[in-house]
Amino acid sequence: MIRSRDAGIGIALVLLLATAGCIGFLTGSEPLGFAANETEVDDATLDETDYRLADSGSPNSTHNVTVAGQTRQVVVSSELRRYNRTVTLAEGIEGDFARVTVFTSPAATVGGTSVNPIGSLSDERLVRRFVGTSSGLSNVEFRSNRSVEFLGESRTVSEYAATRSMGGVQTNATVHLATVEHDGDFVTVVAVHPEAVDERSRVDALLAGLRHPPA
Questions:
Q1: What is the C-alpha to C-alpha distance for residues 108 and 160, in angstroms, rounded to an integer?
Q2: Which InterPro entries match (predicted)?
Q3: Mind listing the pLDDT tens digit for each residue in 171-188?
Protein backbone atom coordinates (compact mmCIF):
# COMPACT_ATOMS: atom_id res chain seq x y z
CA MET A 1 0.00 0.00 0.00
CA ILE A 2 1.14 3.55 -0.73
CA ARG A 3 -0.35 6.86 0.34
CA SER A 4 -0.29 9.39 -2.48
CA ARG A 5 -2.55 12.21 -3.70
CA ASP A 6 -2.11 11.55 -7.42
CA ALA A 7 -1.34 8.15 -8.90
CA GLY A 8 -1.23 7.50 -12.63
CA ILE A 9 -1.21 3.97 -14.01
CA GLY A 10 1.91 3.62 -16.18
CA ILE A 11 5.43 2.24 -16.22
CA ALA A 12 6.69 4.82 -13.72
CA LEU A 13 3.84 4.08 -11.33
CA VAL A 14 4.28 0.34 -11.67
CA LEU A 15 7.94 0.70 -10.72
CA LEU A 16 7.06 3.04 -7.85
CA LEU A 17 4.37 0.75 -6.49
CA ALA A 18 6.61 -2.26 -6.83
CA THR A 19 9.49 -0.63 -4.94
CA ALA A 20 7.07 0.63 -2.29
CA GLY A 21 5.78 -2.87 -1.68
CA CYS A 22 2.39 -2.23 -3.29
CA ILE A 23 2.29 -5.13 -5.68
CA GLY A 24 -0.98 -6.04 -3.99
CA PHE A 25 -2.69 -3.01 -5.51
CA LEU A 26 -1.41 -3.83 -8.98
CA THR A 27 -2.64 -7.40 -8.71
CA GLY A 28 -5.92 -6.40 -7.08
CA SER A 29 -5.25 -8.24 -3.82
CA GLU A 30 -4.68 -5.07 -1.76
CA PRO A 31 -6.26 -1.59 -1.85
CA LEU A 32 -4.39 1.67 -2.35
CA GLY A 33 -4.73 4.10 0.57
CA PHE A 34 -5.08 7.89 0.64
CA ALA A 35 -5.20 9.85 3.89
CA ALA A 36 -6.21 13.45 4.60
CA ASN A 37 -4.47 15.84 6.97
CA GLU A 38 -6.49 17.08 9.94
CA THR A 39 -8.30 20.42 9.86
CA GLU A 40 -9.03 21.98 13.25
CA VAL A 41 -10.18 25.30 14.70
CA ASP A 42 -7.44 26.89 16.79
CA ASP A 43 -7.90 27.16 20.56
CA ALA A 44 -7.97 30.98 20.60
CA THR A 45 -10.92 31.01 18.17
CA LEU A 46 -12.80 28.39 20.19
CA ASP A 47 -12.39 30.53 23.31
CA GLU A 48 -13.55 33.62 21.42
CA THR A 49 -16.66 31.98 19.97
CA ASP A 50 -17.64 29.76 22.95
CA TYR A 51 -17.54 26.65 20.76
CA ARG A 52 -15.91 23.44 21.98
CA LEU A 53 -14.76 20.21 20.39
CA ALA A 54 -17.57 17.67 20.77
CA ASP A 55 -16.36 14.78 18.60
CA SER A 56 -13.48 13.72 16.37
CA GLY A 57 -12.65 10.72 14.24
CA SER A 58 -10.95 9.34 11.16
CA PRO A 59 -13.65 7.60 9.10
CA ASN A 60 -12.63 5.37 6.19
CA SER A 61 -14.48 4.66 2.97
CA THR A 62 -13.73 2.16 0.21
CA HIS A 63 -14.20 2.95 -3.49
CA ASN A 64 -13.73 1.00 -6.71
CA VAL A 65 -11.81 2.70 -9.53
CA THR A 66 -11.38 1.45 -13.07
CA VAL A 67 -8.18 2.37 -14.90
CA ALA A 68 -7.02 0.84 -18.20
CA GLY A 69 -9.84 -1.68 -17.96
CA GLN A 70 -8.79 -2.87 -14.51
CA THR A 71 -10.92 -2.34 -11.39
CA ARG A 72 -9.09 -1.82 -8.14
CA GLN A 73 -10.05 -0.80 -4.59
CA VAL A 74 -9.03 2.48 -2.97
CA VAL A 75 -9.41 3.25 0.74
CA VAL A 76 -9.93 6.93 1.60
CA SER A 77 -9.16 8.00 5.17
CA SER A 78 -10.81 11.28 6.19
CA GLU A 79 -10.75 13.50 9.26
CA LEU A 80 -13.88 14.66 11.10
CA ARG A 81 -14.22 17.34 13.79
CA ARG A 82 -17.49 18.49 15.35
CA TYR A 83 -17.84 21.64 17.44
CA ASN A 84 -20.88 22.65 19.54
CA ARG A 85 -22.09 25.78 21.31
CA THR A 86 -24.79 25.87 23.96
CA VAL A 87 -27.50 28.38 23.10
CA THR A 88 -30.78 29.45 24.71
CA LEU A 89 -33.89 29.43 22.53
CA ALA A 90 -36.37 30.49 25.19
CA GLU A 91 -36.73 30.37 28.93
CA GLY A 92 -36.01 26.82 30.01
CA ILE A 93 -34.97 25.72 26.52
CA GLU A 94 -31.18 25.42 26.30
CA GLY A 95 -28.89 22.99 24.55
CA ASP A 96 -26.08 22.39 22.05
CA PHE A 97 -28.22 23.57 19.17
CA ALA A 98 -25.40 25.38 17.34
CA ARG A 99 -23.12 22.84 15.65
CA VAL A 100 -20.24 23.01 13.18
CA THR A 101 -18.84 20.00 11.32
CA VAL A 102 -15.40 20.10 9.66
CA PHE A 103 -14.81 17.20 7.27
CA THR A 104 -11.46 16.79 5.50
CA SER A 105 -10.91 14.19 2.79
CA PRO A 106 -8.07 13.64 0.30
CA ALA A 107 -8.47 15.14 -3.18
CA ALA A 108 -6.90 12.02 -4.64
CA THR A 109 -6.85 10.66 -8.18
CA VAL A 110 -5.79 7.36 -9.75
CA GLY A 111 -4.94 7.43 -13.42
CA GLY A 112 -6.69 10.80 -13.72
CA THR A 113 -9.88 9.49 -12.11
CA SER A 114 -11.00 11.10 -8.87
CA VAL A 115 -11.54 8.67 -6.01
CA ASN A 116 -13.36 11.27 -3.88
CA PRO A 117 -16.92 12.30 -4.83
CA ILE A 118 -16.83 15.45 -2.66
CA GLY A 119 -15.28 17.58 -5.40
CA SER A 120 -18.11 16.84 -7.85
CA LEU A 121 -21.09 17.27 -5.51
CA SER A 122 -23.23 20.41 -5.66
CA ASP A 123 -23.68 22.51 -2.52
CA GLU A 124 -27.24 21.26 -2.14
CA ARG A 125 -26.09 17.63 -2.26
CA LEU A 126 -23.29 18.37 0.21
CA VAL A 127 -25.80 19.84 2.67
CA ARG A 128 -27.97 16.78 2.41
CA ARG A 129 -24.94 14.49 2.68
CA PHE A 130 -23.62 16.00 5.91
CA VAL A 131 -26.79 17.25 7.61
CA GLY A 132 -29.60 15.46 5.83
CA THR A 133 -32.79 13.92 7.11
CA SER A 134 -30.86 11.87 9.66
CA SER A 135 -30.04 15.18 11.41
CA GLY A 136 -33.68 16.26 11.45
CA LEU A 137 -33.24 18.76 8.59
CA SER A 138 -35.69 19.10 5.72
CA ASN A 139 -36.87 21.71 3.19
CA VAL A 140 -33.33 22.95 2.59
CA GLU A 141 -33.41 26.05 0.35
CA PHE A 142 -30.59 28.29 -0.87
CA ARG A 143 -30.60 31.81 0.59
CA SER A 144 -27.38 33.67 -0.30
CA ASN A 145 -23.59 33.58 -0.75
CA ARG A 146 -20.93 35.61 1.05
CA SER A 147 -17.15 35.81 1.00
CA VAL A 148 -15.06 34.87 4.04
CA GLU A 149 -11.28 34.93 4.37
CA PHE A 150 -9.99 31.54 5.52
CA LEU A 151 -7.26 29.03 4.67
CA GLY A 152 -5.24 31.72 2.96
CA GLU A 153 -7.76 33.38 0.65
CA SER A 154 -11.26 34.76 0.21
CA ARG A 155 -13.71 31.90 -0.25
CA THR A 156 -17.43 31.46 -0.85
CA VAL A 157 -19.76 30.47 1.98
CA SER A 158 -23.34 29.54 1.07
CA GLU A 159 -26.27 30.04 3.42
CA TYR A 160 -29.47 28.00 3.41
CA ALA A 161 -32.81 28.09 5.19
CA ALA A 162 -34.16 24.77 6.47
CA THR A 163 -36.65 23.15 8.79
CA ARG A 164 -35.32 21.23 11.75
CA SER A 165 -37.05 18.75 14.02
CA MET A 166 -35.89 18.92 17.66
CA GLY A 167 -37.69 16.79 20.20
CA GLY A 168 -40.69 16.46 17.91
CA VAL A 169 -40.97 20.24 17.48
CA GLN A 170 -40.40 21.84 14.06
CA THR A 171 -38.22 24.97 14.08
CA ASN A 172 -36.57 27.10 11.42
CA ALA A 173 -32.83 26.59 11.01
CA THR A 174 -29.95 28.23 9.17
CA VAL A 175 -27.22 26.22 7.42
CA HIS A 176 -23.81 27.58 6.35
CA LEU A 177 -21.70 25.57 3.89
CA ALA A 178 -18.19 25.95 2.50
CA THR A 179 -16.16 23.35 0.64
CA VAL A 180 -12.71 24.14 -0.74
CA GLU A 181 -9.60 22.37 -1.98
CA HIS A 182 -6.51 23.14 0.10
CA ASP A 183 -3.08 21.51 0.06
CA GLY A 184 -4.26 18.27 -1.53
CA ASP A 185 -7.44 17.86 0.53
CA PHE A 186 -11.09 18.84 0.29
CA VAL A 187 -12.16 20.76 3.41
CA THR A 188 -15.93 20.88 3.92
CA VAL A 189 -17.48 22.94 6.72
CA VAL A 190 -21.19 22.76 7.59
CA ALA A 191 -22.69 24.88 10.39
CA VAL A 192 -26.29 24.45 11.57
CA HIS A 193 -28.13 26.54 14.16
CA PRO A 194 -31.64 27.76 14.98
CA GLU A 195 -32.68 30.68 12.78
CA ALA A 196 -33.60 32.65 15.93
CA VAL A 197 -29.93 32.62 17.00
CA ASP A 198 -27.59 34.89 15.02
CA GLU A 199 -24.43 32.79 14.55
CA ARG A 200 -23.06 34.25 11.33
CA SER A 201 -20.23 36.21 12.94
CA ARG A 202 -19.22 33.20 15.04
CA VAL A 203 -19.33 30.87 12.03
CA ASP A 204 -17.15 33.29 10.05
CA ALA A 205 -14.72 33.49 12.97
CA LEU A 206 -14.53 29.68 13.16
CA LEU A 207 -13.77 29.55 9.44
CA ALA A 208 -11.02 32.13 9.87
CA GLY A 209 -9.62 30.04 12.72
CA LEU A 210 -9.28 26.83 10.68
CA ARG A 211 -5.81 25.34 10.51
CA HIS A 212 -5.00 22.68 7.87
CA PRO A 213 -2.98 20.91 9.03
CA PRO A 214 -3.06 22.12 12.66
CA ALA A 215 0.06 23.94 13.83
A1: 29
A2: DUF6517
A3: 899 999 999 999 999 999
Query: What's the CA gap between 195 and 205, in Å, rounded?
Result: 18
Omega before 117 cis (within 30°)?
no
**Count of the separate structural domains present in the chain:** 1
The larger pLDDT score, comparing residue 68 to residue 59, is at 59
Domain hosting 119: range is 35-58+78-211
DSSP string, 69-116: TEEEEEEEE-EEEEEEEEEEEETTEEEEEEEEEEEEEE--EETTEES-
pLDDT band at 132 (very low <50, low <70, confident <90, very high): low
CATH, residue 158: 3.40.1000
Q: Which amino acid is at 63?
A: H
